[in-house]
Structure formats: structure tokens, C-alpha cells
Specification:
Strand content: 25-35%
CATH superfamily: RelE-like
Radius of gyration: 13 Å
CATH topology: YaeB-like fold
Number of strands: 5
Strand order of the largest sheet: 1-5-4-3-2
Number of helices: 4
CATH architecture: 2-Layer Sandwich
Largest sheet: 5 strands, mixed
Amino acid sequence: MTLNILPSTQEDLAAGFAFYEQQQSGVGRYFLESLISDIDSLAVTAGVHRKVFGFHRLLAKAFPYAIYYTFDQGTVEIRAVLDCRRNPSAIRQSLQRI
């Protein structure tokens, strides 16, 4: 299984890191490690998650974030990593820009 993280998704992860690191030193690193672990799990579980706004959605285990991805022919593209505390219409707009 091939996992591709888009550049825009890397920006989402960097923004989450900055937010949590500002809250307390070291939490940003824990955020990244946790989300990367969740993303890595898609090598085994890709395609089983419910579709939301046209993308498969994996809810992160340790943080209120959702990982939106597409899955086709053994390739998983991580399209966005978004904070679930946002307004659903703002999440939909973010995903429409992808």
C-alpha cells in the first residue's frame, strides 16, 4: 500500500503542530507523532472508513482531528487533516478547494 501525503496536508499538520506547541512545549511533537501513527494505520485499514464530503474520513485517536483521504488501486492519498472543532461548513469549503 502506498501512502501519499499532499503538500497541503503537510501544511495542515504544521498548523496543528504550531497550535499545540503554543499551548505547551512538547505537545506539538506528540500531536505530529499521533497523527502520523493514525495515517500509517491506513496502510492496513484504507477504504473501510465512512465517506464524508466525498472523502473517506478517519478520526484521529488522540486529538479532535479528522484525516480525509481517497483510496484507489492500492494508493492512499491523504487529502487533508482538519480540526473537527471547526464549523462543518468551513470543513466542507476546505475540502472543496482540494
